[in-house]
C-alpha cells in the first residue's frame, strides 16, 4: 500500500526518520520550522527554545522512528578533526584525512538550556568549504555543540574545526 492509500484509510503520516540537511535550499528555515513546531506543541515562545545536540552512537539502520521531539540530521562532514564514535567526542584527524563523515545528530529543541560546559566546542556548520559564502549569501548555518574530548575547546578553534553540509565549493 503506498502512502496515499495509507492517508485515505485514515492513518496519519509521520515525518521522515532522518533528514539530509544539505537537501534543503534554506536549511536555516527548516531548522526554524522545527523550533516553531516544538514551541507550538509545548505552548511556549520560540524565543525560549534553543538546540541540544545528541550525536548518535548507533548505525542509521537502527533509527526506525522519528524522535519524539526535534529531528535526526544526517550527512554532515567534520573538517579539521576526527570523531571518536565510542566516546562520542572530537579527536585528532587521521593523517591525510581532511574530512570525516559525522554520525547522525539529534537536533532536539529544549527550553532554557543550561550554560555550555568548557568541555564543549561550539562547532560552526557551513554550507560549503568556502566559509565566507558567496553570491550575497552567508555560508554559516548553525553552531553545533560537540564534546571536545581530551583537548580543550580552544584547540579545535585553532584547528578551524567545522561541520560542512557539502564538500563541493
From TrEMBL:
GO cellular component: dynein complex
GO MF, one example: dynein light intermediate chain binding
Dynein heavy chain C-terminal domain: residues covered: 13-165
Pfam families according to UniProt: Dynein_C
Gene Ontology biological-process annotations: microtubule-based movement
PANTHER family: DYNEIN HEAVY CHAIN 6, AXONEMAL-LIKE, DYNEIN HEAVY CHAIN 6, AXONEMAL-LIKE-RELATED
Protein name: Dynein heavy chain C-terminal domain-containing protein
Organism the protein comes from: Alosa alosa (allis shad)
Amino acid at each position: 500500500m503506498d502512502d496515499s492509500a495509507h492517508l485515505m484509510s485514515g492513518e496519519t503520516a509521520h515525518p521522515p526518520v532522518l533528514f539530509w540537511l544539505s537537501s534543503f535550499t534554506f536549511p536555516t528555515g527548516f531548522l526554524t520550522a522545527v523550533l516553531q513546531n516544538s514551541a507550538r506543541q509545548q505552548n511556549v515562545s520560540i524565543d525560549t527554545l534553543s538546540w541540544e545536540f545528541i550525536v548518535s552512537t548507533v548505525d542509521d539502520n537502527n533509527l526506525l522512528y522519528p524522535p519524539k521531539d526535534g529531528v535526526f540530521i544526517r550527512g554532515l562532514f567534520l573538517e579539521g578533526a576526527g570523531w571518536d564514535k565510542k566516546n562520542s567526542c572530537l579527536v585528532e584527524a587521521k593523517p591525510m584525512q581532511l574530512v570525516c563523515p559525522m554520525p547522525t545528530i539529534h537536533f532536539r529543541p529544549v527550553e532554557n538550556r543550561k550554560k555550555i560546559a568548557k568541555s564543549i566546542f561550539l562547532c560552526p556548520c557551513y554550507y560549503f568549504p568556502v566559509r565566507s559564502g558567496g553570491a550575497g549569501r552567508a555560508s554559516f548555518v548553525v553552531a553545533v555543540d560537540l564534546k571536545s574530548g581530551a583537548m580543550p575547546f580552544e584547540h579545535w578553534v585553532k584547528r578551524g574545526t567545522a561541520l560542512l553540509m557539502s564538500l563541493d565549493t
